[in-house]
């Protein structure tokens, strides 16, 4: 992650503030920064979303392509994640520098989606054993301002909500040769249900308390964090300890409870924003990259 | 006589025949959810490594070797404030490089050595779990290399690798705050999902969720945690973590004994 140089006095200031439930920018320990979500920002994709969380800026594009199903799961499509840490985010990501972080984030995304209920993969099947939809989810890190995992998971959920996959039919000839027919109507498409798509909540341990949505400075003061991936119903799909410190078992249980609470609120507000944006229809004003 | 590989081409990809076998799924047998498989641990067996350990638990066999400390490669890092207790400043702390490898014959399907994402993820999990235990501040500008090789995967492979790596570090004489003990768990699906401690490979394949916990037993600090799947609500995961921590505590005396035996062996070998 991007590093920031902090003096001892600044670290002590942050730690003491967190003990009193008061962070440097005035938030409480369980408050998120202001999140801006916008979908359908890139026209060449099946779905896209851009999320700005404080100084963290993420752009996700989803492209649906036809492929062959995996051998173990012939009736399902699948998702492929790729995370690119752009050199604009921080100078450390120049060249191959961002690859390690990119693979770590991609592996975490694979892990959180690695269960039957997150995305209904059976809707992505076109004909068993032969054709299925593969959703290539590409995440681009434009600016790094702390709390990458949360922002990326919010962006992925928004992009999957926005994804529209064209309806395709497989026609069989008399000779048995198969032909693929794309529907003529460009608006005739399958939308994915993102009811059970999880969002990641990262809880950083600072001193004796933990904070949600840490900035870069707060991340520099924390030795260990717990990453919990939670759905809107409170079901946890992934848990991971990040960082080079250790955690007390009691604080892990507290952090898990906080993660569930904060996750539910996050999901509720994200759903309402996405539905509101969709209801504005094609007439809504797109802010894009200029606002 | 070597075959003619240019004119007689084999298939590009090959699959094991089990994929096409008729579905006779053997369900894993019911058992006490808190049973730990008997563990065989031996430290100090490789002659070329500074420290090494071999761990066998049920069908899982892991071999781990530690080398170093040697001079760290990599460019300069910016200066930082000094830590407490006479340790090196933050920028001069040592590094721990972990590598996790699966032998191609370790699982049911053959996996060629550059295993890709999964091995990198497990290597990162190893590093994150071992770093709290090692006093890296005492090895300024040095790096320690830990490489774990999974010879056979019989369930809870990451947990076994963690334990073997900690044993190998202790055998190498690296300064540590405490040993790290790993324990695997899996959630058996069904009408009443229960968490099973130390699952076998069959139980892991049929599981709805899996979790690996790493604990430093004496300090009672959780050094590592990695879990995924449909584990259900938070309360279920919390119960799993508690079960895992208890399993780690039960495993600790075995590891202590193996280190004592290794030290005695080394002492006996030193006296001609």
From TrEMBL, chain A:
PANTHER family: EXOSOME COMPLEX COMPONENT RRP42, EXOSOME COMPLEX EXONUCLEASE RIBOSOMAL RNA PROCESSING PROTEIN
Domain Exoribonuclease phosphorolytic, chain residue ranges per copy: 32-166, 196-261
One CC-aspect GO term: cytoplasmic exosome (RNase complex)
Name of this chain's protein: Exosome component 7
Protein species of origin: Theropithecus gelada (Gelada baboon)
Cell compartment(s), UniProt: Cytoplasm; Nucleus, Nucleolus
GO molecular function annotations of the record: mRNA 3'-UTR AU-rich region binding
Lineage: superkingdom: Eukaryota
Cross-referenced Gene3D superfamilies: GHMP Kinase, N-terminal domain
Biological processes per GO annotation: exonucleolytic trimming to generate mature 3'-end of 5.8S rRNA from tricistronic rRNA transcript (SSU-rRNA, 5.8S rRNA, LSU-rRNA); nuclear mRNA surveillance; nuclear polyadenylation-dependent rRNA catabolic process; rRNA catabolic process; TRAMP-dependent tRNA surveillance pathway; U1 snRNA 3'-end processing; U4 snRNA 3'-end processing; U5 snRNA 3'-end processing
Main location: cytoplasm
InterPro entries in the cross-refs: ExoRNase_PH_dom1, ExoRNase_PH_dom2, ExoRNase_PH_dom2_sf, Exosome_comp_Rrp42_subfam, PNPase/RNase_PH_dom_sf, Ribosomal_Su5_D2-typ_SF
UniProtKB/TrEMBL annotation, chain B:
Family matches, as Pfam families: RNase_PH
GO molecular function (one): RNA binding
SUPFAM superfamilies for the chain: Ribonuclease PH domain 2-like, Ribosomal protein S5 domain 2-like
GO annotation, cellular component aspect: cytoplasmic exosome (RNase complex); cytosol; nuclear exosome (RNase complex); nucleolus
Span of domain Exoribonuclease phosphorolytic: 36-175
Principal place of residence: cytoplasm
Database matches in InterPro entries: ExoRNase_PH_dom1, ExoRNase_PH_dom2_sf, PNPase/RNase_PH_dom_sf, Ribosomal_Su5_D2-typ_SF, RNase_PH
CDD domains for the chain: RNase_PH_MTR3
GO biological process, one term: positive regulation of isotype switching
Cellular localization per UniProt: Cytoplasm; Nucleus, Nucleolus
Keywords assigned: Cytoplasm, Exosome, Nucleus, RNA-binding, rRNA processing
Region Disordered, annotated ranges: 1-35
Family as reported in the entry's similarity comment: Belongs to the RNase PH family.
PANTHER family given in the database record: EXOSOME COMPLEX COMPONENT, EXOSOME COMPLEX COMPONENT MTR3
Protein name in the entry: Exosome complex component MTR3
Source organism (scientific name): Papio anubis (Olive baboon)
Gene name of this polypeptide: EXOSC6
